[in-house]
Amino acid sequence: MDILQQVNRINGHVALSFMTVAAMGGKMPPSLDIANLASTITTIPSDWKPLPSEASYVLSENTPAVIKRVADMGMATHYWREQDTIDIQLLDGNTLTFAISDFYHDEDVSGKRLPMTFWSQNLLYSENWTHSNNNPPPNLGFYDMAAGHYILNDFWTLLPRDWRDVITPVVKEYNTTDEVLTREVPVFVPNNVELFGTASATILDGLGSRQYSTFRSQTGRVRRLNNGAGEAVRFGTSSRRTNENRAVIANAAGVRSDASFRTLVGWCVGFCI
User: What's the rounded Cα separation, in Å, for the pair 260 and 238?
Assistant: First the structure.
């Protein structure tokens, strides 16, 4: 019996006890006295801790540390839902909105599923795959190229310290033209399967990646420029097409498309707690 079941059991006993006492003119029957009630309660686990008293059911009212404590206790789904949002002010002054995209989706290096994944609702940067006008060699993937290093390292340095302190690195799949690779990263961009559900023209199908819940609808994949300004625009993934010098992207309507590695696109960034 877990702690929530114990609490509900106690509440049920107490409610029944008071109704019975009232019906009997204020006398406590032996079968419902405090000693008997106490004897029915199992031992509370030694590692159990009460939820933070400051935790709020409104995601945006919580600090990163509180979100982390609730998540680590396995209670995130009791407090929040997919698509709940929170704003993060970056150190450069920009404010980006992040939404819960899934629970227990991503894995850390030990294979443990992490409680929460967040994705930016706004797009960062205007950057091509290679951070140059050159096509990458076929054996290079997004996280191995200058653009991947620039985008993700720059975003990481712009996150406030209280957010960096609660983020857990995860293992992400990405691909070259003919090989699937993995990389442990604290922040990431979606691959083709995570965004669209199937690989289509890449080699990721049938492997470890799974689509995020909030990306299952076309509208759920639409992203806008920094701070929600401007029109919806296309954004990049970490997937390159097989045997072509092109990358998979999401177009302005959230539909799968592709673009040259030299094409400037926005970037949707995620992280896990």
Answer: 13
Quick one: tokens of 2?
Answer: 């877990």
pLDDT digits (tens, 9 = 90+) for 1-58: 344 433 433 343 333 333 333 444 544 444 445 555 455 555 555 555 566 678 999 9
CA 66/CA 63 separation, integer angstroms: 5
Q: What angle do CA 42, 46, 50 make, to 5 degrees?
A: 90
**φ/ψ (deg, to 5) at 266:** -85, 175
222 neighbors 252 (Cβ within 8 angstroms): yes
Q: What residues does each domain of the chain span? A: 3-39, 59-272
Q: What is the DSSP string of 170-187?
A: EEEEEE-SS-EEEEEESE
113: left (phi over 0), alpha (psi -120 to 50) or beta: beta
Dihedral sign for Cα atoms in the order 39, 40, 45, 50: negative
* CB of 213 closer than 8 Å to CB of 82: yes
- Cβ(176)–Cβ(140) under 8 Å? yes
Burial class (CB in 10 A: 0-12, 13-18, 19+), 84: middle
CA 85-90-96 angle, 5° bins: 30
